[in-house]
Amino acid sequence: AQSVTQLGSHVSVSEGALVLLRCNYSSSVPPYLFWYVQYPNQGLQLLLKYTSAATLVKGINGFEAEFKKSETSFHLTKPSAHMSDAAEYFCAVTSTGGGNKLTFGTGTQLKVEL
Amino acid sequence: EPEVTQTPSHQVTQMGQEVILRCVPISNHLYFYWYRQILGQKVEFLVSFYNNEISEKSEIFDDQFSVERPDGSNFTLKIRSTKLEDSAMYFCASNSGGLNTGELFFGEGSRLTVL
After folding, report:
1. Does B104 lie at the interface with A, CB-CB under 8 angstroms?
2. d(CA A57, CA B42)
3. For A2-38, how does the pLDDT look when each residue is reduced to its tens digit (9 = 90+)?
4. Nearest to residue B72, comparing CAs of B90, B52, B55?
5. Residue of A43, A46, A96 lying closest to B107 (CB–CB)
6. Residue B65: in which H helix or E strand, if any?
7. Rg of chain B's alpha carbons, rounded to an integer?
8. Which residues of chain A make contact with B99, given a CB cutoff of 8 A?
């Protein structure tokens, strides 16, 4: 079985500060890992994905994540937070290219303050 | 850009009533999914569907739930007799399968409120 754990259900940062959202995974087979973002009253939008190529993955809106097998982690970062980044962020894992379900973490609500 | 579309965006129903949520996946995709998100909670897998049959379902997906692909474009989720605890946002997703990266494309969701 696969799972992801997101540490911190709520994270608050100042505008311009570093954003760090943590995700650790558990998988018995090589994982594919994803970060999705959900803005209020909207659906899930893919931010970025790791699919066994480069371990440092760049996504939309200036976000990036690094796959660290030794730490079973896939933390999401952004050097400088913007007010528009306020949203809920979900880490998710699956094991193969197609047909298998994504398993989501519990989500982290990011708040950006002036 | 192709997208997954869902209708209705919001439905209010009385407990015990049947509800059908509709989805139009991306046209060349082969795998279809329903997820739900109860307010304030995480996104939970309900069911996956491939080649006109259920490929996997969760414990949540009991006999009150069913899915169907009645034609070449729609993918529906039916709840036969709704309960208060079925109130949630329901997301449809699709995936092209094969050698893709496992990325799911989600619709904007259907909010179900059971009174």
Report:
1. yes
2. 24
3. 889 999 999 999 999 999 999 999 987 888 999 999 9
4. B52
5. A43
6. strand B65-68
7. 13
8. 97-98
Is residue A1 very low, low, confident or very high in pLDDT (cuts 50, 70, 90)? confident
Strands B88-95 and B105-106: antiparallel
Question: Which candidate, B95, B81, B114, B74, places its Cα nearest to that of B28?
Answer: B95
Q: B66-113, pLDDT tens digit by residue? A: 999 988 789 999 999 999 999 999 999 998 876 556 688 899 999 999
Structure tokens that stand for B109 in this block: 């969701």
Q: Is the pLDDT of residue A110 over 90?
A: yes
> Which residues of chain B have a CB within 8 Å of the CB of A36?
106
Q: Name the phi and psi angles at A8, rounded to 5.
A: 90, 105
